Description:
It contains 9 helices and 9 strands. The protein is of the alpha/beta class. The chain folds into 2 domains: 9-137 and 220-295, 3-Layer(aba) Sandwich (Rossmann fold); 144-215, no CATH class. Strands 1, 2, 3, 4, 5, 6, 7, 8 and 9 form a 9-stranded mixed sheet that branches. α4 (144-161) runs antiparallel to α5. The relative contact order is 0.15. The mean pLDDT is 94. Residues 61-181 form the AB hydrolase-1 domain. Keywords: Hydrolase.
Amino acid sequence: MTEPTTSEARTRTLEAPGATIHYDVRGDLSEATAEAPALMLVGSPMDASGFTTLAGYFGDRPVVTYDPRGTGRSTRTDAAAETAPREHAEDLRLVIEALGVDRVDLFGSSGGAVNALTLVAEHPGPVRTLVAHEPPVVDVLPDREQLTAVCEDIYDTYRRSGTGPAMAKFIAFVQYPGPLPADYLDRPAPDPARFGLPTEDDGSRDDPLLGQNIRTNPTVRLDFAALAAAPTRIVVAAGRESATEMPGRSAIAVAERLGIEPTMFPSHHAGFMSGEFGMEGEPEAFAAKLREVLSAS
């Protein structure tokens, strides 16, 4: 296993319709090869800082991370209230184009996996291998109606009561094992203090997860016909510890719709992290599995 490195990340910007996108390049893009192309690591709404540890395990090839529009350093210049996966996918296409490379390998996690799947459905050419890690797509699940209702409830709670109550609902929701029961929303709301969250509303309403992604990502409808026809090799991954939770269940269902077996990765939804955002996974084992998957391309 390659030891993690701390190579300098060089920040670049590009102007996209309605946003200025910041992205980072580690390593020399000119050293990318057909066998080891540049590796993009993307999330949503998580920005580039969530991939600091994982990027360090791929010091033998160029690594690219970015901040999705409206998060981190990537500012929006339009007046749109929400950003859909298709817009994020177009931003990814523009970043790849700006890199000046023929193709990339792309690892997308959570909302980043949804955006990456959307990209490959519409513009598969620049992506050699896509590893879509736990894309939270509720449309593919049998309890889609309950899941959609819960997402709307979290959004409404955020607009009404702020971050603490909404985030508490979100954490309880994504960690719920198995399909949601019909009476899920009738149950008492979780206490924000249980998760170390604020109980007072600070009045802010600029959280991209609770104010946007909770509505736009889970309810996307993927173009499975286009994905199946794409020349890109698609790997759909789920965490061994989170396979029964909504994002893990979604990954397994997406793989089934594509006619492929899901690939199980170590740990959970944040398995590639080592303390980023307070989340601990198994980054070394996770990186080793990702390397194994990419080397099979």
